[in-house]
Amino acid sequence: LLFFVFSLSRSSVKLVAPLGCLVSRQKHTLPDLPYDYGALEPHINAEIMQLHHSKHHATYVNNLNVAEEKYKEALAKGDVTAQVSLQPALKFNGGGHINHTIFWTNLSPNGGGEPKGELMEAIKRDFGSFANFKEKLTAVSVGVQGSGWGWLGYNKEQGRLQIAACANQDPLQGTTGLIPLLGIDVWEHAYYLQYKNVRPDYLKAIWNVINWENISARYVSCKK
């Protein structure tokens, strides 16, 4: 079994060293938001953002650190059974940390509108138009059963953009191979306090705060 330590920053998410070498590492920490909790109002209110960031994301970070420590101990003991049993916790909490770290940067109080440059050209090439892309990603996100995420990703092998949905906190790249560009969180904790059970209303609103500069930068970077 081989497990990778996640290296996370505001602008990038990448895999670094294998944990199997048992090197010392720093614990994962909750990243700061690049804006205030109330900055996305009226589209996403401050109470949601505060709970989502300081409680939900923080829980994924804490649980990931605990799971990695247990995994490190299991590796040192050669306890394969324990290593296998820890995989769901590593996937769920690691995915939650990865997904939310991307999500916060995908949003901006100065967001909305449409992308420009290379990303817009790629969207028109792969989806026909921005309106068609927006409709498809919204539909996929609305259609997630239970909890999960709607994603715009980049298929590096095929050189094209692709829409996908992931259940729970499954990370896009780790489960589909697509490089994540834009993630839309459709867990109820992301919208219920404001939009109740009407997910389509939340998805209509979130397009007003999508940070196309961040997503465009991710697109340019993953093409290199």
Question: Mind sketching the topology for me?
Answer:
Elements: E1 4-8, E2 13-18, H1 46-77, H2 80-106, H3 117-127, H4 130-142, E3 148-155, E4 160-167, H5 172-176, E5 179-185, H6 192-195, H7 199-206, H8 212-222
Antiparallel strand pairs: 1-2, 3-4, 3-5
Helix pairs in contact: 1-2
What's the helix-strand series? EEHHHHEEHEHHH
Task: Give the overall form.
Answer: globular
The average pLDDT value, as a whole number, equals 91
Looking at the structure, the CATH topology of the largest domain is minor pseudopilin epsh fold
Number of domains: 2
Q: Give the name of the CATH superfamily of the largest domain.
A: Iron/manganese superoxide dismutase, C-terminal domain
- Whole-Å distance between the termini? 30 Å
CATH architecture of the largest domain: 3-Layer(bab) Sandwich
| Number of DSSP-assigned strands | 5
Low-confidence stretches: 1-23
Q: State which percent range the strand residues make up.
A: 15-25%
Count of runs of 4 or more consecutive helical residues = 8
Helical content (DSSP H or I, runs of 4+): 40-55%
Largest sheet: 3 strands, antiparallel
Radius of gyration: 18 Å
Query: Which structural class is indicated by helix and strand composition?
Result: alpha+beta
Strand order of the largest sheet: 4-3-5
Briefly, what CATH class of the largest domain? Alpha Beta
